[in-house]
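Listing S7. Sequence submitted for prediction.
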Amino acid sequence: MDKLTALKTYFGHGAFRPGQEPVIDALLAGRDVLAVMPTGAGKSACYQIPAVLLGGVTLVVSPLISLMQDQVAALQEEGIPAACLHSGQDEIAARTAAAQALRGGCRVLYVAPERLETNGFLALAARLDVRLVAVDEAHCVSQWGQDFRPSYLKIAAFLARLPRRVPVGAFTATATEQVRQDIIRLLGLRDPLCLTTGFDRPNLYFAVERPRDKERYVEEYILDHPGKSGIVYCATRKTVESLCRELRAAGIPATRYHAGLEAEERAKNQEDFVYDRRRVMVATNAFGMGIDKSNVSFVLHYNMPKNLENYYQEAGRAGRDGEKAECVLLFSLGDVQTARYFIENGRDNEELTPAEDEAARARDLERLDRMVGYCKTTRCLRGYLLNYFGESHAGKCGNCGNCRGDFVETDITTEAQKILSGLARIEKRWPGGLGVVALVQMLRGSRDQNTLRRGLDELPTYGIMKSTPPGRMRQYLDALEEQGYILPAGGEFPVLRLGAKAGGVLFRGEKVTMTERAATRREQQAGRRAARSKTAARAAAQTAGDSLFERLRDLRSELAQAHHVPAYVIFSNAALAEMAEKRPRTTGDFMRISGVGEVKARRYGAAFLRAIAEYSAAEPAD
């Protein structure tokens, strides 16, 4: 069997996705690989196809139990024998998996990185015919990565203890240049093929919104997307709990996930989401890496993450099936302080020296600044993300909130002069500087205790912007900061400083403009939504349920429950949509659907062909 035959037989695809073939060729030739490929690009197939063709056992180092279990279930559905070893198993299950691998009944064996250090696994690995080692989520090995895990540093030592050196494939979806170099060095990769297919996910729509009421926004967004599955990420457990309660009260089938729940409940809630029993997951970032659910149609961020790496990875859990999906970040000023607090107080990594820990903290604060820049920019959001990861992107993408938004240029020269003049007087009175709140309170003529105690009410600029709402003040400050007229300085409690360009506005009459959105996409939708009651929306959803696609989705759910696997493991939404469009009538037609391999055709083909035939026969004649 060659690689193309394996691709079609086991995965049901007739051609490789970009980047897959050179990675597979390199691993089959015995060469190490570092592959940076976006979520949904087919990284798993890059080591699963070599696993089929090389024989023996392919070891896959994976950080999360949920990922292992999902991958094993998917491989078994495709006819590839697989097993996993992790701490959540009882002794009988672990022994069964080990025995299966020893007798040659397992082509792919998933293992947690912590397991590599145990004497029991080292003894097992010495007896296995290991042909390939794949390291998933390889960025976890880097101290500069967003998900550093000390256990990943032990992988190189494990590789050295194997009876013979085998090719090693390292895979990740997000890695800056420094992280890529760390992966090569810390895993001991030898002359690896380094391949980056690009970070772009054209099917994802990106947007940043600033709603006054985040809870209401989330509730209405979900009600506006009936039948769609999605994730809502929150920064704290408290927010997860309160938002989940609100969504359930609104009749939305939501569940929750955070580290404060008992392990049993976390597992149940995750299973409910993966198996489509609950279509919305409200979670902290504890519900993270390795969530292999292909039919996620939206990811909402209730709070801003600490960095773009985390955001892109979490947002990237939408649209893994290639269908259109939305990633919306709800931004507020409080998110910045929350993220800064976590950075300043959440560092307990014993693997780092004090100097390294301080350097990592500084790097995290730098990343936070870039994350805030994403939330404030009026440029193409996709371009901002791609540029951050070192990939050029010219012009507008046409598929993000900023590119679709209607923007206007507003002259804010007078406002800028007032703000910069006020800041200049604060700098003169307080050489150490003051923060945003103090500046805004002074300009708006606040009588709060701190303003009066500092004597800011005695400045000539006190109250000169009294009629300007706080939200509008924030927009002015963001624009001035983005253009370099104002510079934030300091660490935990940042202060504002005049930038080098401020003099031109204050003394030479230079003009200042601000790009702002004339009407947000959400505001445009609000008018339409106001004219449509929730009852009408539910009626529309009921009508949509009569479509062939919905019939096939219902059948998939029934089969998933019968076989005890997640629905997307049977067929993706994209495969169901193609079936609904092409309406195959024979097994041969069915196998020409992308994502239908031989094993799945034998197992499920008759049921789906029967459902399609019955639907077509029941349709009224034209």
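Caption to Listing S7: primary sequence and predicted structure tokens for the chain studied. Residues 3-196 form a domain with the Rossmann fold fold (CATH 3.40.50.300). Residues 520-546 have pLDDT under 50 and may be disordered.
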